Amino acid sequence: MSTADAPEAEVPDVPGPAPRILLIRAPYYRQIVDGMTDAAVLLLGRANATVETVDVAGAFELPQALAIALRGRTRYDGYVALGCVVRGETDHYDFICDSAMNGLMQVAIDYAAPLGTALLTVDTLAQAEARSAETGSNKGAEAASACLRQIALARRLGAA
């Protein structure tokens, strides 16, 4: 399925109190990440979630920030990680994408943390713009919806 064909992200039913979400952003490509942030915050607002946002230097720091947050005193019901990596002329792209995505998944598994991820890994800025635009499929909204679904699952299974 292409981004153009993707259905609009849905606001799932989350039982219990309004979720508290930490949105972790790597705004190296600010316009792209801002577009995803706006869509994520809008969707989370429709779920009556409260959202706190923190920025990190880049995609490589996303998993580290998630781990720091999970070890901190402030408790969140779920997390959303947003960023963008555009392929360049060196292997740097592959290392950053692999490390960031694997790191996010490993931290989420280790802590059983509800996580929605929209780390765009694209060949061109145009591809990133198509995935972060105000209209159409927005990966920030999709990540927010995924986070809420994971929170609902954790609450249903007694893990929250």
Name of the level-1 CATH class: Alpha Beta
Q: What is the CATH superfamily classification?
A: Lumazine/riboflavin synthase
Mass-distribution shape: globular
Please report the distance between the alpha carbons of the first and last residues.
33 Å
Into which percentage range does the β-strand content fall? 15-25%
Helix content: 40-55%
Query: Pairing-aware structural class of the strands and helices?
Result: alpha/beta
Mean pLDDT: 94
Report the total helices. 5
CATH topology: Rossmann fold
For the CA atoms, what is the radius of gyration? Answer: 15 Å
Give the ordered list of helices and strands. EHEHEHEHH
GO biological process, one term: riboflavin biosynthetic process
EC number: 2.5.1.78
Pathway: Cofactor biosynthesis; riboflavin biosynthesis; riboflavin from 2-hydroxy-3-oxobutyl phosphate and 5-amino-6-(D-ribitylamino)uracil: step 1/2
Protein name: 6,7-dimethyl-8-ribityllumazine synthase
Provide the fold topology:
Elements: E1 20-25, H1 30-46, E2 50-55, H2 62-71, E3 78-86, H3 92-111, E4 115-122, H4 125-132, H5 139-156
Brief characterization of the structure:
Helices cover 46% and strands 18% of the residues.
Describe the protein in words:
The chain is an alpha/beta fold. The protein has a single domain (18-156), classed as Lumazine/riboflavin synthase (Rossmann fold), CATH 3.40.50.960. 46% of the residues lie in helices and 18% in strands. It has five helices and four strands. The protein has helices at 30-46, 62-71, 92-111, 125-132, 139-156; strands at 20-25, 50-55, 78-86, 115-122. Strands 2-1-3-4 form a four-stranded parallel β-sheet, sandwiched between helices. The chain is globular, with a radius of gyration of 15 Å.
